[in-house]
Amino acid sequence: MYLQLEGTEGRKEFIFTKPPPRSILPYYRNPKSVKLLDLHPLEVARQLTLIEAELFRNIRPRECLNQAWNKDPDRAPNILAMIDRFNMVRYVALHEYDDHVLRPVVIVVVVSSPC
Q: Which superfamily does 23-111 belong to?
C-alpha cells in the first residue's frame, strides 16, 4: 500500500507494510436509523482520525506565521478548516445529546482517538 504526498522538497512516498484494520460495522436493519452510539467507539475514532489527519496534512507552514488565520482568512484556509471541523465536532458532542447521563459518553466517543 502506498501513500504519496506532495511536499516542498518534492514528492514523498510512504509505504505501509500492513493493510488497514477491518472496519467495525454495526448490526442494523435500516441504515438510516443508525445513531452515533450504535457505532463502535474505536471505529468512530478511526474515521475521525482519518478525516482530521487529511485536514492537518493540508496545513502549510506559512499559514502558521503571525497568526495569519486571525488577520487575513485567505492566507490560512487550511487552519480555518481545521478550526471549523473541531468546532463542529465539539458542537455535536455537547449540543446534540441533551441527556446529562448520555452526554459524557458521546463526548468520549467523539473526542477520543486511540489510533
A: Ras guanine-nucleotide exchange factors catalytic domain (1.10.840.10)
